[in-house]
Amino acid sequence: MALEDYRSDMEMCCRCSICKFVPLEKLKEKQHSYVCPSIARYNYHTYSGGGRMGMGIAMLEKELEYDEKLLEVVYNCQMCGACDISCKYAMDMEVLEPINEIRIKCVEDGHTLPVLDSVINSLRTQGTMIAGSKARRGEWAAGLEVKDITKQQAKVIYHAGCRVCYDKDMWKVAKDAVKLLKVAGIDIGIAGESETCCGGRAYQMGYEVDFLNQAKKNMEMIKKSGAEILVTGCADCYYAFKVLYDKFDLKGNLEVLHITEYLARLIEEGRLKPTRKVNVKVTYHDPCHLGRLGEPYLHWEGKPVPGHIRIFDPPKEFRRGTYGVYEPPRDVLKSIPGLKLIEMDRIKEYAWCCGAGGGIKETNPEFAGWTARERIDEAESTGAEAIVTACPGCEQNFRDAIKENGSGLKVYDVVELLAKAIEKGGH
Amino acid sequence: MIAEDKLAAIVSAGNINRERATLEEFSRDMSFVNAVKPGCIVKPKTMADIEAIVKLANETLTPLVPVSSGPPHFRGDTVPGIGGAVIVDLSGMKKIIRVDRTNRVAMFEPGVTFDELIPAVAREGLRLNMPLLPRRLKSVTGSLLEREPVVMPKYHWDIGDPLACVEVIFGTGDMFRTGAAAGPGTLEEQWTAGGAQKEAAGPSAFSLYRIIQGAQGTMGIVTWASARCELIPGLEEPFLIGSSKLDTILEMVHWLIRLRLVNECFVLNNANLAAIIAKRWPGDYRELKDALPPWILFFNIAGYEYLAEERVSGQIVDMTEIAQRVGLEPVQAIGEVSASELLKAAQRPSGEPYWKLRHKGACHDIFFLTIYDNLPGLVDTMFDEAKAIGYPTSEMGIYLQPIVQGTNCHGEFNLFYDPGNRSESARVKELSERVITSLMAKGAFFSRPYGTSTGSIINRDAATVAALKKVKSVLDPSNIMNPGKLCF
Q1: Could you tell me which residues come within 8 angstroms of residue A151 by beta carbon, excluding any fewer than 6 positions away?
Q2: HSE-CB for A265 with a 13 A CA cutoff
Q3: Total Cβ atoms within 10 A of residue A143
């Protein structure tokens, strides 16, 4: 697909601006009505989903020249998909796909940001998006006694992801995840030093070729290992393996599960029994790539039927966020004795982004921090003591924002809290 | 007190009843209001009879309690508030005055029940927008005047629908016709001129039907009513959707009504659906209830005279797409319950015994209006209060009826209980009184306050009470019409 393939989607935009907000029918509180961080921060239509549609058409028509301002708009977006899902509440059109295609076109035309080029250079040379990292990729798993899938067969492969591997603060979450799976008796392995980036963020930054290279490498290794299930604790990786790999017909029969999906399943089957009390009042933040963007990819091949009304033959089903992963993390939290879960105003399909996605953490850390602060304020307004999420990217960004601005709110991963509730031996 | 001979001069002696057993029957109902014995029961036959009775009551300052439905009564509005009252029993006024196919409207007297009116309008290819399985002896006029919610929100344009016009004898003894029926000319002259007494508003900007509806007989006595009717569909495809998530069910309801895809559309919990469908008690009921999901959405897609099949199949495609979008699966049956069986049930009054009485012999309803967003919170509040008082939440019936094009929703909790069990009755009474304040705090609007909770609801709005009293002083200056009800 190319930007041109989404011309009719972009032309569908009627500037209703619903892409900026939580749909009226779903709105709970005026204070938390914005759903798109980009328009909420920069307050100019072009920064919104609808504005980007107009921009895409102008680029196709060659009415816009590449300049600093154009690139500023293009890259000041977390690619969180909130505009896409809000729009699709009442409309049948793609929004996030053309926004992604605009970035791909920018890369193809050689117009990118230097900081992104350096990130991609790291991907090309070191197999990770974390540029300049010194730590060894597999160091996090030291002492875990877990199978190395490059040498041994395992049914399940645990993919830790770049953010976990190169951030010592995140190691504990990955270790807890592996330990919990082992307690439940899962035949699990990791790729250790051989694990490389999923490539998902490269795709969302517009580097399609690099993403495809990465995806092919990963799938080759996974196929060779014989693993049937890939489990990851990172929402970005989950989206890449489950959705993007499928979009490009690379996933095959691999079952992709987020760690919270697997843990919820194991709790339901009685293979994990949270019995220890964890007395804490928490609110849950839906990571964009696990929630609204985490629903399966829908393969469709067809064409629009000529006429005034935009319909397709065969009828096209749209991904509207309905089948994202919303309940499993909540189910895990609810299974923990003593834990009280309070919901924020913007949740599930209409969750506010943590701010770290789409390359923003690298290109515009101020904007990433601003977006995280908005979410922290929302979490604090619930009266919760902690914000819990299920993605290292979100956790890291929340922690950075709290460190910078101060807040009594604690940040947890769902896995960490479950680990506290499981006694040794699994019950 | 009206002398019997004077009443007999109006309705004849045979239509006056002072038998002890009958007076006892009218002195109480299934609600928790105090029992008060009436002086007598009188059965008028015509508008002139009613006019004369009201005039006589004004002369003697005798309270009148209009009653149009047969027993059992549930809401305390037909139990006299003052001793010595005369029950004006309208159940004998059974004339169906007119059914107008062209204008889709029917006119009938207050004693006409659903069982009687349904076949009469069906002969003209029409049907009523019904409340959910009304009891067999429920008066259609009574139901309309009480603003009972109807099951087809698509044809519900105003909170007063489907009531059109009424003829009423006010407490002053004056006859008045509301809406289009107000004139000019007699009814016959209006018919000759093509009039149909369908427009509820009027005359001019004076829409008196809004005062009469919900007044519980405190303003006057209605002698006939007309109601909007709908066409009988040529083809119907009903569906059920079960889920444990109420908010997802409500999302589906929102879309179905917003896109005007469905006729009948309502939500029941498992206890209520089982109570409606179960044939053998208590075995069937338990089995059905346990097998059903917590929430069940019912809706019906219909086609009419032209291109019925094309319309229905097209709308099913649209509906299926919405269901996929929302994450639900429409089916034609859930376990033993088929959608077509429920459709048939919903298009008739309840069989005997009344469905709300089958489980335990008695039922107390708590109902209000609200918006969809508030409903899950209101259900939680109700459950919390029920648990605190020891009423089993799994036994509670819940009925959610979107109304007025889905702009808001009637919420109803049905508290089934054994009237012979004193502690159970006391628990239900306490719960029904206690929970009102909590529900109001969470966004429940009690637009139809009845019985013992009326005071705590209506007294929250002193300005409205003052305005209502002013209106009452004009229409019923001697306060003879059902005194003791609402704020009068």
Answers
A1: none
A2: 10
A3: 6
- As given in the structure block, the two tokens for residue A244 are 């993007």
Judge whether B329 is closer than 8 Å to chain A, CB to CB.
no
- What chain B holds in terms of domains, given with CATH numbers, is 4-89 (3.30.43.10), 96-231 (3.30.465.10), 235-346 (3.30.70.3450), 362-448 (3.30.300.330)
Apex CA A251: angle with CA A246 and CA A252, to 5°?
115
Rounded CA gap, B176 and A280, in Å? Answer: 65
User: Are residues A25 and B327, on separate chains, in Cβ contact within 8 Å?
Assistant: no
Contacts of A317 in chain B (CB under 8 A): 321, 324
pLDDT (tens digit, 9 = 90+) per residue, B129-166?
Answer: 999 999 999 999 999 999 999 999 999 999 999 999 99
Instruction: Output the six-digit token pair for A88.
Output: 């699709």
Structure tokens at A185: 């008796």
Tens of pLDDT along chain A (427 residues) come to: 899 999 999 999 999 999 999 999 899 989 999 999 999 999 999 999 999 999 999 999 999 999 999 999 999 999 999 999 999 998 999 999 999 999 999 999 999 999 999 999 999 998 998 876 666 899 999 999 999 999 999 999 999 999 999 999 999 999 999 999 999 999 999 999 999 999 999 999 999 999 999 999 999 999 999 999 999 999 999 999 999 999 999 999 999 999 999 999 999 999 999 999 999 999 999 999 999 999 999 999 998 888 888 889 999 999 999 999 999 999 999 999 999 999 999 999 999 999 999 999 999 999 999 999 999 999 999 999 999 999 999 999 999 999 999 999 999 999 999 999 996 555 4
Give pTM, 2 decimals: 0.84
Distance, CA of A383 to CA of B469 (rounded, Å): 45
Backbone phi and psi for residue A247, each to the nearest 5 degrees, phi listed first? -55, -35
Q: Is B324 on the interface with A (CB under 8 A)?
A: yes
| Burial profile B329-348: b = 16 or more Cβ within 10 angstroms, e = fewer | ebeeebeebbbeebbebbbe
DSSP code at position B356 = T
Kindly determine whether residue A323 and residue B373, on different chains, have CB atoms separated by under 8 Å: no
Tell me, yes or no, if B326 comes closer than 8 A to chain A by beta carbon. yes
Torsion angle of alpha carbons B305, B309, B312, B317, nearest 10°? Answer: -160
Q: Smallest Cβ distance to B324: which of A25, A28, A317? A: A317
Q: Do B254 and A25 touch (CB under 8 A)?
A: yes
Pair of tokens at residue A360:
């923003």
DSSP character for B243?
E
CB contact under 8 A, B254 and A317: no
Q: Which amino acid is at B286?
A: R
The domain ranges of chain A are: 115-268
ipTM higher than the 0.90 cut: no
Looking at CATH, the fold of the domain delimited by A115-268 is given as: Rossmann fold (3.40.50)
Token pair of A316 as six digits? 């096209």
Question: Does residue B239 sit in helix, strand or coil?
Answer: strand
Phi/psi region, residue A110 (left: phi>0; alpha: psi -120 to 50; beta: rest), is left
Biggest CA pair distance of chain B: 70
Q: What's the CA gap between B77 and B217, in Å, rounded?
A: 8
What's the CA gap between A348 and B100, in Å, rounded?
51
Nearest residue in B to A316, CA atom: B321
